[in-house]
Specification:
50 residues, mainly alpha, flat
């Protein structure tokens, strides 16, 4: 149970390992990829009682 007010402005910054991970694991997407973000799916036929 929290009885005090949380302070969102805690001191600190990103660590060097987090910055390195973000740089290594982030890719740039072509805007066309985001503009055509669709997923095709074929749900199974409905049969039986539901």
């Amino acid at each position: 149970m929290l009885i005090g007010t949380r302070n969102p402005d805690l001191p600190g910054d990103l660590t060097e390992s987090i910055v390195t991970w973000q740089n290594e694991m982030t890719i740039t997407l072509d805007p066309g990829v985001l503009n055509n973000a669709t997923v095709s799916m074929n749900p199974p036929d409905r049969d039986g009682d539901r």
